[in-house]
Autophagy-related protein 18b (Zea mays), 198 residues
Amino acid sequence: MPDAHLAPLAAMVFSLNGMYLATASEKGTMIRVHLVAQATKSHSFRRGTYPSTIYSLAFSPSVDLPDVLVATSSSGSLHMFFLDASRNARRQANTLFSSVIPGSVTDALDPANHHVIHNVVTADIKSCLAVHSVENSQNSSKFPSLKTVIYIVTHNGYFREYLIGTTKSNESSWLLEREFNLLDAYSGSPKQNELHID
């Protein structure tokens, strides 16, 4: 296990192909990604300035598209990070800092790698998430984009499906596709569409 954080670990997950290991500490301000075979850090992403417990981490299942890492935290937000090495290399080559600051550090300072959706779940409610799919798509402005489908299940029984679109120009949009209470669905209650985002 690489020396990932100063504080105790709160969450960790392997990528589907076993190449990456993502970790977050109890402080929750930084999320780090490690190359398993080399036992070295490849990316460091800043989730935020203030501490927040990371409840869940998940990698995308796609092997042909940029790797996506998502996280939920006690703040109630959803964070999405891109591990696009070729894009990062091109961007870093054009910055003054690239010659003096390691790539993993510039990843943390680069907002293009980080997208946030606030109030995805109620703050301090534990949650678990999964990336269902990542696909290339064509939006109305003719710019190529990625369409990411994310499932979130909360400790109090809510299921939510989000569709997140991101373009190469770092524009993003999101849509709540579905939401329902798993406890109501299990009991046969018809109240599937009466839930609201807090």
Observations:
- The helical segments are 85-93, 103-109, 182-187.
